[in-house]
Every structure is written in structure tokens, then in C-alpha cells.
């Protein structure tokens, strides 16, 4: 079977419309985020939810141009990280010019091994993508996460004058994991 | 009132949580209104116990009355310790017409024939269950009321549930049960759990079950969340499919709360990279145990959320289907009938 | 001693309540002596007193079984213990009886279980009991039970000095594998800087190699490391989970019940400040440790008069004014729970003026762990984080920091970590306030620790976050500058930035950090304004920042002038609201004053500092643009910052395009021009703005604008 790549510019944009694709292997947080995202009134936001990439061929027709791809990673689950990592190769390289971001949940959980957070940081840094942290447990956290995604989405969809996705991602992209473990209690 | 009775009451009082004390004592019905009112339940428990002991002394009650109180408490709070299910086999013609009085008499006489010192108390609960409390003794010692066995049997059904039974007592109880219920044999139902009601429901099929069908059920429709036209699931088909599979295996209602499922593997080791193990003649033995506060619910969630692959493997779905949570898995071939066959893949 | 204690303990009056009643009913006029006599007489018949007497007098080897007298007396003591608690005297007697094993082990356990103090536990009794431990006849389980009891009632022990004196003796028990976790916990509570010795560190390390990296050993070692970093070279993992478990269960509920029951009685009899809150070090309890313990010491008043003469320690809680604090400065006993210091201003004052390094270390140590465990390594994934408790805790921390006017180093370390996983919304007001309090960060670190996480948060968050962060950075700058002006030393220009941590920074280092910060904010501001469409709210917060920046030299004595980037200057100049333009004018005016004064000072003192030509050039450029644009109607003149081709401007068909942004045509001031025009020439039907341009009306118009409160404009161009 031919591998289907998701391409950023294969379709025409809609008027005053932004389309976002949320990829999460656990399919928990994405629904909450989607519900909050579509409440935006200034622009029409369409949300597509997926468990992983590639996306099914049969939706090819109905799917609008995706302006931003968000990989949601639950840090307490190795599977979640691996799944996101595996999905990345089904994206056209064009997406990595500012139209991909990572959103991480549970970063403050005691059961998260530091290595996993570092691995996610390295992944995001190597792809020059922003890495956002989200509090998925509280309503405020969900609203805030959706708001931040919208901020990026609007730029990525070309709705903010004088700003492009690449420009914003240059300002927000993840830098290599800071090694700030040392100043703890010395 | 002798020392052992005193200990029995003290131990029982320790077991009953303070909030339940008052109602349990009321149900017991032995205390007069004045006696009940004289007890101050806000006091520490040892003080209440002292008071109750005094009343018992006064009324010259014996172990008989105390065990009554114990039964009342256990019947209302059966979820303590492990319950094991048994199934009676090969009924005689009149097995379906055994009624309570007859059963009571028969059981007591059969059991006291087998064991010299035994104290049996039988009580019928509101839900048709017959509760039997057995304090075992042996030829030398008097019945030990501190470690009683509880047996719950539903008359006219082949099911028996037992808690705190030692292997030594098992054949004795089995024989008494078989004879008094007019069956020919009894076997282990391979089902156990901490919640009596749960294993009863599972075995007696008293919960909302799933009926395997080839056609997509309307349930899938219900689970498909149509939240907003602007939200679209790319892999909606997969999700609906998973939900349906999960429902087919486990139903979509409340599930009985099981705590564990054990799979005992006795199969040939197959791995072409490991010759020494593969070439061994004896089967490779290992035990897999799943544990959860609500195992069936967890398994259903695993299947519906995609953590476990669908369709659900018969190994998991046979827990509700067969009403058991202990399986022995062997390679295909001649094996005892109670065992389960599964080809390894 | 015993009778004295007896007098001070309310429990005795409680148990002989009958006696008290009769005594009090005989009116207060009777002499105390008579009442006392009466009381003693009654006490002598009190069965409880007799019971105590039995236990203090009973001989070793008295048989236990079938001993009805013993049984009767012990039940009496137990009953009282569970209902009202035991007086300090009773505790001493019972503890002595139990630990001496006079009647064997069985009653020992039973007695230990009922040792519920009403008020305090006398230190002497505990020390004696510890000595009995050393005799070695007590079964191990009973020994553990005893240590657990000490841990539970630790805060109720009336003084700790004697216990600390036998620190070495207690330490010797760590070698016992069963006792080790509990002994470590006890040592942890007792450790002072003096107690950290090389041989103890060595012993603990040896134990660690034997038992593995046990959390209780690590916790004790990390405390040692805090006190004497040079002795403990071992690296302590920053992620340690609950090192000491809660051992208070056997007594906890009974203690609470006794306290509850006594609560009303104690209050009415006004005999004791009875404020027991926590039974163990708060850090050890997940989800409860954010509750700041109340500053407490259980040494009561009567005992204090007696103690202070002999031992010369004054618990902090007994001081109520600054004068008292100053008088007792040299003999203050710090509470066991350092966290309680945060709640008391007097305690903070003490901390501030004494510069007690170990006290500050202990506080920082506690705080660091509390913050880390509660906000970074949450057990439940952080679901309960917005709880009232967490808010109150951070607010308390903030108010303490404001009081001390500096931050704790542990909260700083925590912030850097928290920023790297922050979603920008959780506890935002508190986090931003904490952030604005951090001391100057060296310029080599500032980018990595602060700017990188903040930049990412800034550009991906909402307008309100952007404004909040701007405000936070303004406050941060103001605090840095204030520190500089307060701590800068005249001669060598060195500044000690933090009075406690004494990080010394050279002036140039400080200047570098400030410059980094100002440039960083300039970058955020320029791009932020661009992304948010020059939102006037954001602009206002940005101008707040530059109001501080423009005055660094005159107001804070820092020889540094940094101009705003064009991305801030032009949006402010062409802003739609007149206030922003006016504020920009004021800021430019302050820049002018600062630069002129710097220049004159440079000439006069010939000091080494030097403001670069580039800064002057930038300033002049902005000045020319502003004057030409607003006053001279010479927009788009060649040589100005904004240049457009002549052809293009003609093509735009804007008539007299060069006047577009003067004070009359500027979109922010147009409405004033219209208003002025109507007032000046009420009869005129058609508007002719050019008539304002004539010299007379122009000066009137300016006067009119100034009268509307636009002082910035007035100061910017002084009236000739």
C-alpha cells in the first residue's frame, strides 16, 4: 500500500478558517481540548482527532487542509510517546516549518521518569517544534491549553497579519533540555 | 459465661465497626430496650464491649447467642475474606423439591455423623439464600467458634459459596452437602472473589449479559459521540468497532466486581531461538494473574480504549462467559474435562 | 520539681475537679495556702494519685499474672489517659515504670500505648527512657514502639537541649538495623550544625553501603550536607520521596481526641497556650504539609520562668514585641518546625537580623522539599494543585518574602524547574509574583534559566498572560535596581545582592544582567506588539517597563541607559490612544534628563563609565522623529526613521501626507483637535485644521492639550 503523507499545502485554505489535527494515542485529552477549541468565535476552528498517523485514506476527500498538527503525549505512558514518535514519519517535511507542536501532560507527576521528559524534549528540539506543557486534570488547565493552541493555530493558518508559522516557531521552539538539576539544594 | 465465649464476643466486637454496632445489636433483638439505652455508643469500643459482656453475664448467655450475633453481622457484611464457588453435579430426581426444613435437618445430621464435635447454625436469609455457620471441632476438642466456616447455598440451585474452609474440612462439608441436597457430586467452580454478591451474580447469571451476535448492535450507535460538527474523528470506525467488540465480550451494563483472574499455563515452550527449552518434554509452567478492584470493568476498558487488542481474546472473554476466574491452559490433546484448551500463538 | 510541675499542669485540676469545685466555691478570699492544703488532702485520696504512687513504688520482679492491684491501677491510668491525657508528672512516672521493665515487657507495651500527654512531655523523662534503651533488655519491637512514641510527641517535649546533649548516644543506635529508620528520623529532628561530625557521616555512609540507598539515610545525610557541605561529598538525588513514614498512628487519634476534649476546658481555665498542631515534621506528610504549622512551643509560662533561669532558652512563641525579641536575642530557641517561621513576622525579623545561617539553611531545606514534593513531583498527577491549601501556602511564602524583601534560595531553585514544565496558567498570580522576587541572575545563566522558558510561554499564551509577564518583569527590574541602590558599596562598586547568601557581584556583572533583561523585554515587547496587533493594554504594560528603564541612572544610580527598540517606539508613537503617546513623550523626556545628567557627570568627574555614542545616536534619532512628526508636521522627511518613496506617498492620494501624524491629525489627538476647533471658532461650519497651525492658535492648542492632562507632552517640549 502506498504510504499516505499528510501535506500542508495540498489543499486550499478556507475563508477565516483554521484546521487543527490532534493526535493522541490514548484519545483522552483530545476530546476535551477539541470541545474547548471549537468554542472559538473569532475564526472557524475545525478539529480532527486521530489516534495515530497515517490518517485513513477514505477521509482524504473530506479532510480540510490541516494547518497545525499537535501530538499529545502523556508522560506517564511510554506507549504514548512511542506512538507519537512513530506517527511523525507520516507527515510531509513541510509541516516541520512551524506547523507541528508537541503538547505534554502529566509532566509534574512523580511517576514520570526524568529520562522520558528528556527524550520528548530532545525529539521536539531536533524537529525545531514547540513543546507545550498542559494541565489536563483541571478545567482551567484545559481551557488554557486550548487557548495556547489557538494562539499558534491562528498564526499557522495565516490569520495573524505580519506573522507566519515559521516566524512564530522560531521564537517558541523547544531548545535542548536544560540541565537545571544541579542548583537544587546546594 | 466461660472464658472462650468472652473471647468470642470480644473478638466479634472488634470486628464490627463502631458505626454499625448499634444497628447490628438492634437486629440481634436480644437486648431489652432498657439495656440498649444503657449503652453509650460514643464511648470507646472497649467500654461498650465491657458493658455488653456485663449484660451477657447477667442474662447468662452462651456461645449460642453470641454466634447468632456473629451471623447477623456476617450476613449483612459478607464481603470479608475470600469466597469460593462450588457446583453440585448430577441431581437426583427429587433434588428440585428439597425444602428448607428438610435440608436443615439432613445437613445437620449428616455432618454430625461425620464429625463428632461440630456446631451448625442455619439461617434463611431474605433472598432465598440459606446461610450455614459451622464451627468445627474434632474427636477430642470442642467446636472452635473463633474460626467458623460460612456456607451460602441457594436452595433448588446447584451453587454453593464457601468461605474460610480448610482442606481437611472440605471433604466433610462436600459429603454433607451432596447428601442433603440430593445430588451426586460437587466440584470446584473455579471462581473466587472477595465479594459474595459478585461471584454469585457471575455464576448465577444475575447481571446484564452480552449475547454474541454477528450483527452490529445498536449499542455502537449510542457510544459514538456526536459532539460538534466541527470535530471529526479520523479513525471513528476503529473506535466504534472497538467499543462493539468490548461490549460483545463484556456487555455494556454493570459488571460483577471480581478482584483477580488466574491463568495457569502448562504448555510446551515454543521458541526456535531457544532450543534447550523447546526440546524439553515436560510442559513449561507459569502463572499469569490479573488483579484489579474491578477486573471485568478494567478488561472492558482495556478493550474499548484500545490498550488490549480486539476482538477480545477468548481467554479474557471466557471469564464472564463461563463464570470462572481460574483457568488451566494446556496444549491441545487429552486433558481432564475441567481444563481449558487453547492453542498458543 | 515534681510538685512544681504538678502545679502547672491543668490535668491535675481536671482530674480532681471535685476538689477544685469545692476549693473555688470557698471563695477566692481564703488564702492560697489553705486552698493548697485542702487540695493536697483531697489529692491524697484520689485513686489516680494512688495509682501513680503504685507505679512509682512497685518493686522489680513483682508478679504480673493474677496481680489484681496492678490491673486495677493500670486500667485507671489508661482510662484517664484516653479521656483526658496524662500530666507531665504522670508521663514521667509511667515512662520510667515501663522502660525499667520492672514488671516485664508486657505491661511496658501497654503503658507506652497509653502515654497520651495532656500538655507537655518532660524532657527529663525522655532522656531517662533513652538511657534505659541502652541497657539492652528491652525487646526490639518495644524499642521501636518507644521511638515511634518519641517521634509522635516530639513537638510536645518541653525542651530539646538535654536530648541534643545525648545526640551521640542516640546516634549509636543507628547500627541496629531494626531501629535505624526510626533513629534516623529522630536524629533528623535533633540535628544541629554542631552535631554533624566526620565520623558520623562516615558511619552513615557505611550503613548506606550495607543497607542500600535507603530514604531515611539519604534524608539524614542530605540534612548533614546542608549543614556541612564539605563533609558530605555524596550527591543527593533531587527526587527523593517521603523519606520518613508516619509513625504516629497508634497515638494520633487518641491525641486528637484528648486535645478536642480538653480544648474547651483549657481555654476557660486560661492556663496554657495549648496550640498543638502537627505531630511530626510537616514535610513528611503528603498533602498535609502545605498547612503551615502554627508557631508553637509547649514550654508553658510557669515552666518558662523556671527554665529560663536555668537553661536560658526562650521559645520564639513567647515573644510578643520587637523589644522582647531584642532583649532575648541571644537565647532564642527555634521551633522544631522551621516552616512555622513563615507565619510569624517576629520570627522573620529574628531570622533577618540574626543572620543565623543554620536557621536559614533549615528553613530553605524544608521549603525546598515542600515546594518540590507538592508542585513538581505530585503523586496524583497534580489534580489537586489549585487547592486552597496550595494557594495559601504560596501566599504566605510571598508575604514572607515581601517582609524580608528577598527571596529564599530554595524557592528560586524551585521556580527555575517549575518554569520548564509550567503551562502558564496554573497558580499564575503566585508564580509570577515569586518570579518577580528572584534576585539578580548572572548574565551567563539568565538566558537558560529564565528567558528560554519565558519566551516560549510568552509567545504561545494569551494577551493577558503577556501583560502579566510584562508586569512581572517590570517588578523584577525594579527590585533589582532597588537592591542595587541599597547595597551598592561606594568604593569598589561591588554589591552584595543578597544579604544572606552573600553572592557578590561586580558592578559590570550586575549591569550585564540588567542589560540582558532589558534587551529581552525589548524583544518580547516588539514581537508581542506585532502579534497582538499593537494592543493598547499590552502597550501600556510595556511602557510601564520603560518608565523604569529610562530612569536607571538618576533614580537608581546605575550608569546604564538602554533605548527602547523601534518595535516599541513606533507602535507607541502611532498608537491610537493619546495616553500611550503622552507616556512615550514622558519616557523620552526622562531619557533626555538622564542622558544630559550622565554627560555632565562624565565631564565633571571623568569617571570610568561611559554611555556609548550609539545610545545617544538612537536617542537623537527618536527625538527628531517625534518632534518632526508631532510638532513640525514633517513626517517622512528624508533622514528620519520611517522612509517612504515620494512616488508611493503621492500614489496614496493622502493630501498633505507630511501632516498626517502631527498633534492635530494624529489619530489619537484628532478628536481633541475637533473639540478645540469647535471651541475656538464656534460659528464656523466647515472644519479647517490648518487654521490651528497658525502660531497663536497652535500655542493655544498645545495649552489646551496640556490642560487635558498630557503632562508628558508638556515636559517633552518645554514651552519656550
UniProtKB/TrEMBL annotation, chain A:
Domain of life, per lineage: Eukaryota
Keyword Nucleus belongs to the record: yes
InterPro entries attached to this UniProt entry: Centromere_Cenp-M (IPR020987), P-loop_NTPase (IPR027417)
Swiss-Prot/TrEMBL keywords: Centromere, Chromosome, Nucleus
Subcellular localization(s) per the UniProt record: Chromosome, Centromere; Nucleus
UniProt entry tagged with the keyword Nucleus: yes
Gene Ontology CC terms: chromosome, centromeric region; nucleus
Name this polypeptide is given: Centromere protein M
TrEMBL record, chain B:
Name of the molecule in the record: Centromere protein N
Protein source organism: Seriola dumerili (Greater amberjack)
Keyword annotations from UniProtKB, A to Z: Centromere, Chromosome, Nucleus
InterPro entries: CENP-NAC/CAD_complex, Chl4/mis15/CENP-N
Keyword rRNA-binding: no
Record's subcellular location: Chromosome, Centromere; Nucleus
GO biological-process terms attached to the record: CENP-A containing chromatin assembly; chromosome segregation
Keyword match Membrane: no
Gene Ontology CC annotation, any one: nucleoplasm
Entry's family note: Belongs to the CENP-N/CHL4 family.
Positions in coiled-coil regions: none
From TrEMBL, chain C:
Keyword terms: Centromere, Chromosome, Nucleus
One record GO biological process: CENP-A containing chromatin assembly
Annotated stretches, region: Disordered: 1-39
Annotated GO CC locations: inner kinetochore; nucleus
Protein location: Chromosome, Centromere; Nucleus
Top-level taxon: Eukaryota
Record field: compositional bias (Low complexity): 7-25
Keyword Lipid metabolism: no
Keyword ATP-binding: no
Family, as annotated: Belongs to the CENP-I/CTF3 family.
PANTHER family named in the record: CENTROMERE PROTEIN I
Protein name: Centromere protein I
